[in-house]
Amino acid sequence: MKIISSKENKIYKLIKKIKKKKYREKEKLFIAEGKKFLDFEYKPKYYILNENNIGLYSKLLEKEETYIFSEDLFYDITTQINSQGIILIYEYIPSCIEKIKNNIVILDKIQDPGNLGTIIRLVDAVGLKDIILTKGSVDIYNDKTIRSSMGSIFNLNISYLETDKLIKILKQKEYNIISTALTNETIEYTKMELKEKNAFVFGNEGNGISKEILDISTAKIKIPIYGSAESLNVGVATGIILYKYIEKVNS
């Protein structure tokens, strides 16, 4: 345990830096906030406590990797209005594209970190393990993504790939590629047919799925809209389709 009250402290400076993506990538570290993250087996490199909340985390006070920040310093780094007084610094989570299983979720240039966090949580909830994001998608270690994932990020194998490399893998492994899209070939999501290997593709919030991926898709599906809404949020659409997938698998 170390008590920190100066902005010259190296850990304080490190945390300020890794709030930005380029420094996260350089240091291979990311920030998670809230006591919920203490429930997971993936252990942080540093525990940062607000001096006013140390009574809530007495078990952490004996750890060498625990730092107690003054209230001013802590509130200078927290991103939460009603902070629980604990911030955790983690090393990047190992991922391996070679270990992807028969059913995967692909996110094509998704931009909103809250949507990504929600989808990570959904994928974990339905029991899938693999997500592939195309390059140009939002950073999985964005603080909003981490917060929205509610810790499910620790349970998944998440990789980034260039679109051409992704397409090569999908073809080589003979995936049944099910993409959300509105074309003349689109069918309702309830009619999608599953095979041994299925890749569910969801696209950018504004532009949808890239033409390169649509061109190799086995099926294009849609969720019908019965009211006046123009479209569904990508996180909502992912939930509807993945739970239909589970229903079909278990039927």
Automatic annotation (TrEMBL):
The keyword Transferase is annotated on this UniProt entry: yes
Keywords: Methyltransferase, Transferase
Record-annotated tRNA/rRNA methyltransferase SpoU type domain positions: 104-243
InterPro entries: Alpha/beta_knot_MTases, MRM3-like_sub_bind, Ribosomal_eL30-like_sf, rRNA_Methyltransferase, SpoU_MeTrfase, tRNA_m1G_MTases_N
Biological-process GO terms, alphabetical: methylation; RNA processing
Record-annotated MRM3-like substrate binding domain positions: 11-87
SUPFAM superfamilies: alpha/beta knot, L30e-like
An example molecular function term from Gene Ontology annotations: RNA binding
PANTHER family membership: RRNA METHYLTRANSFERASE 3, RRNA METHYLTRANSFERASE 3, MITOCHONDRIAL
Record-stated family: Belongs to the class IV-like SAM-binding methyltransferase superfamily. RNA methyltransferase TrmH family.
Name assigned to this protein: TrmH family RNA methyltransferase
Record organism: Hypnocyclicus thermotrophus
